[in-house]
Queue: 3 jobs
Job 1
Amino acid sequence: MLLPYIRNLKRLGFDATLRQVDGPQYYERVRRFDYDMVVDVFAQSLSPGAEQVGFWGSSAADQVGNRNTIGIKNTAIDTVIDQLGKAKNRDEIVLYAQVLDRLLRAGHYLVPLYGKSATNVAYWDQYRHTEKLPSNAIGIDYWWTDKEAEARVNQYLKQ
């Protein structure tokens, strides 16, 4: 995924290289903001709130070990995060989360690499799950084994 990205950056005139480091060095470099570009994940809950300061807030931009790996310092974003943390109901949470989303997109702070909103799972035809699964997970906790189907799979594997 990264190599074609780097190749295209070079075609645009950027001197881009990929540097692979071991786990401890990677985490220390990220913790101290010692990089030009980094792959990161910004996992979110379905009810964002005051924790957004750690991801996008100006106060977190220079704090060693914080989650604002982008280094965003934007007073408009800080104001929206503050309002999001003070939201009194679900409608306000949705409103301020949408405004925050628009501000982050408008700032062009990151290059999305994984644009898929679903997860593919391959499994033997012995598992069952409810028709409706959680919207934010695969829901494996809600799966069960169909004993008859399991016996068919086991018989097949013995061949």
Job 2
Amino acid sequence: MVALAAIGILLGATLYFSSFGFASAYRRLLEGRGVRAVRAQILMIAAATVMFAPVLAQGAWFGREVIGAIAPAGVQVAAGAFLFGIGMQLAGGCGSGTLYAAGGGQLRMAVTLAMFCAGSFWASLEMGFWGRLPALEPLALGERLGWPMAVVLQLVILSALYALLGRVPGADADAPKLSAVSNGRIWRGPWTPAVGALGLAGLGFLTLIIAGHPWSITWAFTLWGAKAARTIGWEPGTDAFWSGDFQRDALDASVFADVTSVMDIAIVAGAFAAASLAGDFRPRLGPSPVAVVAAALGGIAMGYGARIAFGCNIGAFFAGIASTSLHGWLWIAAALPGSWLGLKLRDRFAIP
């Protein structure tokens, strides 16, 4: 757990120094203002795919079981990812973005986080309904095609997407004007998205071999929401989802016994440390009161969407595709239209 906390701190610092956001990347893409951040995401997933494959193929690391992020690809994933896409544009941050922005001093992200927990807990009470909707059985390309073939196939697809994005009108609108580390001091940043992408992929691999599963974010928010509900009288034994062994044990234990909770807290701490080192830590609420309201609504939408989609931009998209799971590809295919709608709603709120 100490090692995972250290990884979480490094994740928070990497996210902050490279300003590695998913919501902002899709906003720039859909508004025709550049593709550099989205291409960095592709680089991150490609690097993680190559690193994950040998370990997932063996199913163990030095005798410890290791599993990928694999889930059914169905209606609930598509619906959840679409809702998450709306939410992250309203809130101005994704799952990981909420944590590192809060650590960097954006106080409205604390509002988003609270609503994220509430929405995620709400969705956990309705998992029975979503689980009855049509879905394919969990499918990992590595298990179906063999890991070498699956890795090659994913790298071909990712390379094609990377090249295709370079041909999008306005693709060079955010061409890099900085070196990898602009001022020569790695502990102060800023870093380019590509440096952040490779750093996150490497830290994601360390998470996989130490925790035994890929990096995830939003399970902790579901757990925190449930713990808060329990303090005001909710009884978990009446709900099928929370009657499961893993969920019940996590609810009864301390949050510091939960891997995802410890890493999420460490990410906030890492972002705070990075902002302080860079001299950028300035607590601020937001551009306007209405932006805070939008952040709250976005948090609810992301929380609900992430729970029913088996994760967010990290646990479902990044970790899912790196694990060669079909649901990861479905997640991003549904999240992008959701982001487009979220941008339209963002305009309604007049958020700068």
Job 3
Amino acid sequence: MISIIGGGPSGNYTAYLLAKAGKQVEVFEEHRKTGTPVQCTGLTTSMLSGLVPISKEYLVNKITRTKVYSPNGDFVEIPLKDNYVVNREYFDTHLANKAMDKGAEYNFGKRFISCKEGKQITMQFNDNSEKQTDTLIGADGPSSLVARSANLFGKRDFYVGMQARVKLESEKDLIDFYLDEDWFGWIVPEDGKFVRLGICARTDANKHFTNFINKVSSKKDIVEWQSGIIPIYNSRLRTQKDNIYLIGDAATMVKATTHGGIVPHLQAAEELAKAIIENKNYEKLWKKSVGRELWLSLLMRKTLDRFSKKDYNDLIQMVKREKIKQIIGNIDRDKPSKMVPKLLLAEPRFLKYSFKGLLSLF
């Protein structure tokens, strides 16, 4: 028996892949249904379509361009390959239904508390029940109780993400990003009438969010509040201990640049399923598949975290060059290993910023 804790994208997709291969799979989700509460913009790159078929069942919007604003109000507009805005509740449910169609069993309202390790793992739940399993997968988010119980949690750092669904007229195919010291913000349209408006910050998130809301909208237009902590990728964390595995936010598999994780989570799920089915080394597989991209995203974030307002203002001016816009627009954000070398070759002035990122690693 393979037991998966958490019914988010990484847990559901892993369940689907394992059940499709004939494995006996059981998923335990603490909430009464998948996809809630929402703590994500639901924005993904075009790489999503290479992992799961895009379906009207969960697709909310398609994005084809972005405006990126500097602290002084200047901006650059960049065309994008198709980006997708998904309804996370429907997306998670879509993946769960695919897993159930292949035979995976789901237990809702069942919260994992801890486990006793061994050849057979004994899991304890919030209703004082226990259950044994051969393999345990922690897909239970940034505060992972599986990681804590198995002594895999290690040292972790987090950002705070705050978001709201807001009634606000917008251009349907356009995302706005706002760059500044200590935080960045976004306006992601669901349609022409409602947007997902939020910020991410290491400190003072409430202050930055309030200021941002006041700048671009009004509190009276908020129809739903959403917030949560976002793990910062740590390549040194162990993600496997004997027959216990971690994936997704539980393994800090999040792009540090945008703090998105849907695509790398699904990619890692494919490697986890392969590792279990073919008895291969999970950590080697997922790090080869997505580890380099996550590490480069972390380096870029550490660089941006050292930026002053002037640095951001200067950066937007450099990005206005047509060649730079084409590079950024034609390469998915999930592939910084393809983007960064081309940017450095096209604009050597980016090198001065890369040194800031390298210094931050020491």
